[in-house]
Amino acid sequence: MRVLPVRALPKPERLRYLFSFDFDDTLFTLGGPAEERSIFFRTMRMLRSQYGVLWGVNTGRDPVYLREGLADMFRDDAEAFAPDFTVTMERNVHLADAEGRLMPGAAWNDDCAVAHDSLFTRYGGMLESLMGQLESRFSGLGLRRQDNDAFSLVVDDACGLDEVSCVIQDTVGPYEEIVTQRAGPYLRFSHRDYNKGTSLSFVASRFGIPSSHVAIFGDGHNDLDAMRHLPEAFRCCPSNAAQEVKDMVARGHGYISPEPRTRGVLDGLAHGVFPYFGMKAEVLKEDI
């Protein structure tokens, strides 16, 4: 995450709020309107200067894949600036340093790596056997392993992933340390203590921001961990969110946008986050 075409802005004098965005099909959609991205960055600049808002990306993408996605998001946008933090693979944290470069959150990432090395050492054989069985049983769904992550799967058939998930849960259910992270067609085995929620809590604590001043935007199943783990945070999802996410948003402080993807984020900011936190952002409201 160190090499990006832009850097994070200097921190506000007073850090007051933290906004966390899922990336794919929430904050960013490849080929989406460039103007929506420009509105987002103009809005975040204003929120930063007026309200001390920091922002970041909380995603299942690995660091290399996220770097590529952020480069696409920043492209040809003079307003763009890098996030203050990223969470990748639902668990690895990078924080912007004084020069705006995203650097590993060393203590968190080291502990995370040790926990996963131990997990996969103890249960790797069982998981390998399970994944082999799944590849054979669900070959018609286009099920395959990800090349860059030994303990993750891709399933071309989104509905079929529901059935795959049930089989997986029957096998790993007795092992309390093992959980699955699911987003779209992707499913990853992970340690229960490291997810979008625990990672975001770590980030918020490093910035000294209480969970009641956090806003969480997401559309996929792996965003549920963040919403559960920070129940005092404001929740927002676009119209394309999974039904389980919409249900979670509806049960707490939250807003379900009638708009999809990036436009849903902008709508969620204007009609959900701003009134909830008492922020005035007329420029954004006029833009959308």
Shape type: globular
CATH superfamily of the largest domain: HAD superfamily/HAD-like
Total number of helical segments?
9
Task: Kindly name the structural category.
Answer: alpha/beta
**Total domains, how many?**
2
Strand content: 15-25%
Largest sheet: 8 strands, mixed
Q: Residue ranges: pLDDT <50 for 5 or more in a row?
A: none
Lateral arrangement of strands in the main beta sheet: 5-4-3-2-1-10-11-12
Total strands: the figure is: 12
Please identify, by name, the CATH architecture of the largest domain. 3-Layer(aba) Sandwich
**What integer value in Å does the Rg equal?**
19 Å
* H-E order: EHEHEEEHEEHEEHEHEHEHH
Q: Output the CATH topology of the largest domain.
A: Rossmann fold
Distance between the termini: 31 Å
Helix content: 40-55%
Average pLDDT value? 93
Which CATH first-tier class of the largest domain would you pick? Alpha Beta
GO molecular function, one term: hydrolase activity
Pfam families: Hydrolase_3 (PF08282)
Keywords: Hydrolase
Protein name: Sucrose-6F-phosphate phosphohydrolase
